[in-house]
Give the backbone structure.
Amino acid sequence: MNILAINFGGIGDEIFFLPSLISLKKEYPDAKITLALEPRSKSVKDLTDVIDNLFLIDIKGKNKYTELLKLVYLARRGNFDIVVSSGGNKLISILLTLTGIKKRYGYDTGKLSRLLLTKAVPLNKNQYACAMYHDLVTPITNHKTYLPEINVEQQQKIPNSVLIHPGVSKMSVQKGMIKTISAGIWAETVDLLIEKGKHVILAGGPDDKEVIETIRKNTKNKNFEDYYGKTKNLKDLAILIGKAEKFICSDSAPLHVGVAMQTKTYVIFGPTDDNKLIPKSDNVIAIKAQDTCPIKPCLWEHRQTTCESLECLKITPQYITDLII
């Protein structure tokens, strides 16, 4: 059994997609699963052994249509038995048909999808994203995987530790999507947590250099463990998150690693919808401003960029610290 799964998006989207792949692997233990994804998200393979192969398809680059033709070519020569694709574009059903794969599963985007797909699955965006993706495989398997699972062992906890990963993807910032508090607020939070006797660990990825440097500069108390640059990949970050008693982050990929590691995770939420991005669990806490914005959450629901006032991100360091302590 050869299965092709297609899911374009950031690394967070690929982590959301993992439960679907895990359920497919439970249904077909000997299956080989190939995931077609964007090059920027290829590190998801470091977190799991359910993915046997990757097709890197750069649909955000200059040669989008050439890349899609490459996907069709790779799919046709891959001898796949099943293809499962996320995405709400009406043309996806045509793309899957062009692959020549007999069993095709995707979202119901209208009459054409119902005609061309083996099963057109209703797209329900009003639920946790893992569940939304998992709906795609319900016609194939009765197995249900609710949360991301990754191949990192549970770690021995660092006593009294709070890990802070303040960054978000540079791409989202460039697109005008501000999803976290300022570096100055993060710095004040570090100071307050140290004042309360916490062992604070600061981490970040390549996109977070500017915010980390600002935090370093603005913290009054330098008695924190600076781990920036020491996690070389997602698996390293997962191990570090696993060692922390508590984890604070923004609405970004590390959040989903925290969920998978079952570390107590606190997430800054502003313009995005926490009901769709975190599971209903006492182990994952949304930190939100007490604002009265009438269209909150606005990002993606009502607008493609955040507003200038950002009332939804006016969260004080004291409020964050009180929740953690």
Residues 170 and 207 are 6 Å apart (CA to CA). Residues 2-137 form a domain with the Rossmann fold fold (CATH 3.40.50.2000).
